[in-house]
Amino acid sequence: MSRVSVEYKDHIAHVTLTRGDKMNALDDAMVKAILSAGQEVAASDARAVVLSGEGKSFCAGLDMASFAKMAQMDATEWLMGRSHEDANEMQELALVWRRVPVPVICAIQGVAFGGGLQIALGADIRIAHPESKLAVMEMKWGIIPDMGGMVLLPRLVRSDVVRLLTYTAQPIGAQQAADWGLVTKLSDDPLTEALAIAENIAAQSPSAIRTAKRLIEVAETQPRAEVLLAESAEQLELIGKPDQIEVVTAQMQGRKPEFK
Question: Which three-class secondary structure state does DSSP give residue 73?
């Protein structure tokens, strides 16, 4: 049975976790399917991605059978091996969405716990239902967040919030998550809101959007001088090129731009 569906419509990739009867909990098949979906979308000509989970919840994290399996394995190889550039397979579940060269908007309903939250953190933007719950759940099982959470969390929230969430494993409501910066905004219909944002992005210059995502990653990780140089170098590749000319022409003619 398929764990993830990928559909394309109007330049938007719709990636949906399809294990709704299990709250989209992560088993080995789900892990493989999410990685495959991320890699497929990254190689496509999609201009934006909407990431969601079917059913009552976005993703409840690792399922119990996977915990039992993990306890019986020699963890050294699958934890320490770097199978995806700088990441192992589980870390790539979140980081693959940062590697996707176009914006990823995640719609959250129900719960986003543990690994499910870390996958959501890999998206550029998170839209959550007001009644949804989020948790850095790993401490409940005597482990720590190790799916890219320690790369992603400190970029979004204060150090004391990272520590509180990690040490206690307590779920927080969507409003608190938004106040702290884990969630971008709240919506009574997060999937529809995520799609509206994706449609807005898909209508922009495709080359400028990809450049912007690449530049933001540089801005978040590199020293000032490198960021300033990257701004200039990236802009040089946009100005006067077909997409940028079409944007200006469409603005002057009072119409929507059409990109090839």
Answer: coil
Burial class (CB in 10 A: 0-12, 13-18, 19+), 43: exposed
Kindly state whether residues 51 and 115 are assigned to the same domain.
yes
Order across the sheet with 111-113: list the strands. 111-113, 133-135, 172-173
> What's the pLDDT score for residue 102?
98
- The tokens for 109 are 């309903």
Q: How far apart are CA 161 and CA 120, in angstroms?
A: 17
Q: Both tokens of residue 100?
A: 């996707």
In a shared domain, residues 114 and 132 = yes
Task: Find residue 7's DSSP bridge partners.
Answer: 14
Give this prediction's pTM. Answer: 0.93
**Whether residue 117 is found in the same domain as residue 171:** yes
Could you tell me the pLDDT band of residue 80, with boundaries at 50, 70 and 90? confident
